[in-house]
TrEMBL record:
<dbReference type="InterPro" id="IPR017871">
    <property type="entry name" value="ABC_transporter-like_CS"/>
</dbReference>
<dbReference type="InterPro" id="IPR003439">
    <property type="entry name" value="ABC_transporter-like_ATP-bd"/>
</dbReference>
<keyword id="KW-0067">ATP-binding</keyword>
<dbReference type="GO" id="GO:0005524">
    <property type="term" value="F:ATP binding"/>
</dbReference>
<protein>
    <recommendedName>
        <fullName>ABC transporter domain-containing protein</fullName>
    </recommendedName>
</protein>
<dbReference type="InterPro" id="IPR003593">
    <property type="entry name" value="AAA+_ATPase"/>
</dbReference>
<comment type="similarity">
    <text>Belongs to the ABC transporter superfamily.</text>
</comment>
<dbReference type="InterPro" id="IPR027417">
    <property type="entry name" value="P-loop_NTPase"/>
</dbReference>
<dbReference type="InterPro" id="IPR025302">
    <property type="entry name" value="DrrA1/2-like_C"/>
</dbReference>
<keyword id="KW-0813">Transport</keyword>
<keyword id="KW-0536">Nodulation</keyword>
<dbReference type="Pfam" id="PF13732">
    <property type="entry name" value="DrrA1-3_C"/>
</dbReference>
<dbReference type="Pfam" id="PF00005">
    <property type="entry name" value="ABC_tran"/>
</dbReference>
<feature type="domain" description="ABC transporter">
    <location>
        <begin position="6"/>
        <end position="233"/>
    </location>
</feature>
<dbReference type="GO" id="GO:0016887">
    <property type="term" value="F:ATP hydrolysis activity"/>
</dbReference>
<keyword id="KW-0547">Nucleotide-binding</keyword>
<dbReference type="InterPro" id="IPR050763">
    <property type="entry name" value="ABC_transporter_ATP-binding"/>
</dbReference>
Length: 312
């Protein structure tokens, strides 16, 4: 079992009478891509800020890279905040180098890393441009570069895809995947399930500050039954592993059926039986639950939060 790059143990954070994070425990294995998933007010940003020592927990324990949260960890961490903010008059290159220097990089190394990132992000020709002259999407990419400039061992990204068009979202996904391949632990928060489906090794589903699920994508999907649709000559209800077959269409002897399988039965076994025994089929479709469906299962269809809580 790999060591944990980040671990929460019974962590609670209260703001007056509001409990933003409630008895939260989880662990992020080193070298993994870990997704914080939840709607506004779920506790994602508050949790990341506690891990960064920006906020102090009301109760519980946090370990970051094997020690309590501390500014001393800064050189090993890259952070992209949800609320973006750069010095508007500073040039693109100087901005990224500045953040590298804050992470204790030598000036030459910071500049080389910054230029390599600008090439990768398609902004090399804007290196000398002031931040205020950039589009919102370009500024967002510069902010991403400030989080990556020090090649951090722990990369924490709060809603990193916000404000990016689909092309640049794909570019950022590639950067995250490359960071993980290079040995970094990546933690990112999002409410967009597709990014998590493509990137994450493990997931944490949050609602109203509480953990609803922690595990792999397959484990999240496995909490819901798959759906099987087949077209067969004759009623498939008597086939091995079929618990219920509901006819939804068809013509004459050929029927289309929505099939519910018994616990433990696999569609592959049913298909093998049909093939081996000459059962006539002309359609056999298996629909496995999406992460969005799993999210609704664990969190509910209305993870909305009271006014004033969404900022957390």
């Amino acid at each position: 079992m790999p060591a944990s790059a980040l671990a929460f143990e019974a962590v609670t954070k209260q703001f007056g009478t509001l409990t933003a994070v409630d008895d939260l425990s989880f662990a992020v294995p080193e070298g993994s891509v870990f997704g914080f998933l939840g709607g506004n007010g779920a506790g994602k940003t508050t949790s990341l800020r506690m891990a960064l020592d920006i906020l102090t927990p009301t109760a519980g324990r946090i370990d970051v890279l094997g020690q309590p949260p501390s500014r001393e960890n800064a050189a090993a961490i890259g952070f992209l905040p949800e609320e973006r903010g750069l010095y508007k008059k500073m040039s693109v290159l100087d901005t990224i180098v500045y953040f590298g220097r804050l992470k204790r990089m030598e000036a030459g190394a910071a500049k080389a890393s910054a230029m390599a990132l600008l090439e990768r992000l398609g902004l090399a020709d804007r290196a000398k441009a002031p931040i205020e002259k950039l589009s919102k999407g370009m500024a967002q990419k510069v902010q991403v570069a400030t989080a990556l400039v020090n090649s951090p061992g722990l990369l924490m990204l709060d809603e990193p895809f916000s404000g990016l068009d689909p092309v640049n979202q794909a570019m950022l996904e590639d950067l995250i995947a490359d960071a993980a391949k290079g040995g970094a632990t990546v933690i990112f928060s999002t409410h967009v399930m597709q990014h998590a489906e493509r990137l994450c090794d493990r997931l944490l589903l949050l609602a109203r500050g509480t953990k609803r699920f922690e595990g792999t994508l397959d484990e999240a999907r496995g909490a819901l039954p798959f759906r099987l649709v087949l077209a067969a000559r004759g009623d498939p209800a008597g086939l091995p592993g079929v618990m219920k077959a509901t006819r939804t269409g068809g013509d004459g002897d050929w029927g289309e059926y929505a099939v519910e399988m018994a616990d433990g039965a696999a569609p592959e076994g049913l298909l093998a039986h049909c093939t081996a025994n000459g059962v006539a089929l002309n359609r056999f479709d298996v629909h496995r639950p999406s992460l969005h469906e799993a999210f609704i299962h664990f969190v509910g269809s209305d993870p909305a939060t009271p006014a004033g809580e969404a900022a957390r």
